[in-house]
From TrEMBL:
<dbReference type="InterPro" id="IPR041588">
    <property type="entry name" value="Integrase_H2C2"/>
</dbReference>
<dbReference type="Pfam" id="PF17921">
    <property type="entry name" value="Integrase_H2C2"/>
</dbReference>
<feature type="domain" description="Integrase zinc-binding">
    <location>
        <begin position="79"/>
        <end position="135"/>
    </location>
</feature>
<dbReference type="InterPro" id="IPR050951">
    <property type="entry name" value="Retrovirus_Pol_polyprotein"/>
</dbReference>
<protein>
    <recommendedName>
        <fullName>Integrase zinc-binding domain-containing protein</fullName>
    </recommendedName>
</protein>
Amino acid sequence: MNFQQLIKQDEVQPSRYFTVKVESFSNCIDSIQKPLCQDSQYRSILQELGKGKSVQDYSLDSSSQLLLFKYQVVVPNDPTIQLRILQRHHNSPLAGHPGQEKTLKLVKRDFHWSGMTQFIKDYVSSCQQCSRNKNIHHKKFGLLKPLPIPNGPCICLSMDFITQLPLSISFDSNLVIVDRF
């Protein structure tokens, strides 16, 4: 999935001023409820719970009428809704661009949807700000160690092909042989 195309739809132009956009949870509820009723994966679960029957691990929140999976709000299979939730938990100044594991933990605390782990990993790995500010987690590379000098000629040879050269007498490659003596 190309997250950059989805993000550019809601992108705000940078300015000299710093603002924090706070979205109320009621807007989030409305954007989740309507598509969830149309989602074939969850429609039957909602119907069963509406009849008063119990479905394993699922429940219906009495005040908001949201479908819950083990106390997490179920999100429909709509990438724009999932992206909005993910941006709230990853891009907001309060979240501070945490890594994949922390973002996953933050989102899983409140929400559930199928394929969430891969969706979050793909998003965080494509986040431009995270890749710019990422800390280096590996040891510094060591110094190069020179190869030992051979005792005489033709003891140690190295060969390599230089390919994709412009055609010269119907050939486009060279074989290079170097005697390391």
